[in-house]
Design a protein that fits this description.
393 residues; alpha+beta; T-fold; eight-stranded antiparallel β-sheet; three-stranded antiparallel β-sheet; 9 helices; globular; disordered N terminus
Length: 393
């Protein structure tokens, strides 16, 4: 509202105080995407713009999933894998750019994060089915087919050709959700003043802040099943990776689902990594690398990374963190469940990685604040080796 113009007939200027801005409206919805629940909460003053932005967000994630999912035979990544050892495959330039970036991430993480880990994923899946660990020879053979050197990318404008060596395979499951959130955030209209984009228990983007709050308060679990603490995030992405959130048992021994691309072996330490930063794609890669590397080496890696902070937790109670973690996240450690019940106010201690209301998009979009579940119903879980879009369990 603009101040009224002066009234010359009266010979005086009438000052009109500017009305306070209208309180933001909240719209939320959830749906199944990339093998998990995707929840979108947006705040703004235009109801129709918010509802349209939510629909566009789900459409964008669907578009990306159609490009990178290994569970969709028609996706660009599936076609690249199917043609391994043959002629280059014509793909969308966006896929080529993402794979180029992942190759850079592999180099920067000293091989601790690698999307060409597909042969090792397949090997350990087969080992679980037959109930026997892979032999050293089998591990060596699979490991020899892992690495960016097996990937050849030629770009030409908006299209690209990608060739993969025989026996190699790409798996973007460890980074696809973060990349999708980055793309959704980048395309949000200016009328969205704040929001929380959350893949349930693994990846989130905290945009702006809810009214009368310092940021989005997110409750994080600990690797022992308890509660690690509460983060307060504003304009920061979060990635949570836990090694034994999903595991396999082979010959009476339990193995984590995250693999060390350098050795080919699954991780066995019960640890959880949390990384926040200005880029959800990089945060995803760093949270996996943090589990793979020795704790001190992993923390040093994040310390050297622009605009990123991290916390690494061990089930035995040990922890490691970057120097700026506490200040960046306003981290509040917890020794047990929150003292208060998790409230329905989305600015309180709820949100990713346990934010899980997930009203279907097929039902009317509701304006009420999202309802947080009982903390005991959720636990962080993510995977550097899981498919980009797994079918429902």
């Amino acid at each position: 509202m603009t101040p009224r113009a002066a009234l010359p007939l009266l010979g005086i200027a009438l000052g009109c105080a500017t009305a306070p801005p209208p309180a933001p409206i909240e719209r939320s919805a959830g749906d199944y995407a990339m093998g998990t629940a995707l929840e979108v909460t947006l705040l703004g003053t235009d109801v129709l713009a918010l509802e349209r932005a939510i629909e566009d967000a789900f459409d964008e994630v669907e578009r990306i999933e159609s490009l990178v999912s290994t569970w969709r035979p028609s996706s660009d990544v599936s076609r690249i894998n199917a043609a391994a050892g043959g002629e280059p495959v014509l793909v969308d330039g966006e896929v080529a750019a993402l794979l180029t970036h992942t190759s850079e991430l592999t180099e920067k993480t000293s091989g601790a994060f690698d999307v060409t880990v597909g042969p090792l994923v397949a090997l350990w899946r087969e080992a679980e089915e037959r109930g026997r660990r892979p032999s050293r020879a089998e591990l060596a053979a699979a490991r020899a087919r892992v690495g960016p050197a097996h990937l050849d990318i030629e770009t030409d404008g908006t299209r690209a050709r990608i060739a993969l060596d025989a026996g190699s395979a790409i798996d973007l499951g460890g980074i696809a959700k973060g990349y999708a959130l980055d793309r959704v955030r980048a395309k949000l209209p200016g009328r969205v003043v704040a929001g929380l984009l959350s893949f349930g228990q693994s990846s989130a983007w905290a945009i702006g802040k809810p009214p009368n709050a310092a940021g989005w308060r997110l409750l994080a679990r600990a690797p022992d099943g308890g509660f690690a603490g509460v983060l307060t995030l504003r304009d920061r992405a979060l990635s949570v990776s836990a090694n034994l959130g999903s595991s396999r048992e082979i010959a009476g021994r339990r193995y984590g689902h995250i693999l060390d691309p350098r050795t080919g072996n699954p991780l066995i330490a019960r640890r959880q990594a949390l990384v926040v930063g200005g880029d959800a794609t990089d945060a995803e890669a760093l949270s996996k690398a943090l589990l793979v590397l020795a704790p001190e080496e992993g923390i040093a890696l994040v310390e050297s990374w622009p605009d990123a902070e991290a916390l690494l937790l061990d089930a035995d109670g040990r922890s490691w963190r970057t120097e700026g973690w506490d200040a960046e996240t306003r981290f509040e450690e917890l020794d047990g469940p929150p003292a208060e019940p998790v409230p329905a106010d989305s600015s309180r201690a709820c949100g990713a990685p346990i934010f899980s209301r997930c009203a279907s998009r097929n039902s009317p979009v509701r304006s009420a604040r999202p309802t947080c579940p009982c903390p005991a119903t959720s636990a962080p879980a993510t995977s550097s080796t899981a498919p980009a879009a797994a079918p429902p369990a």
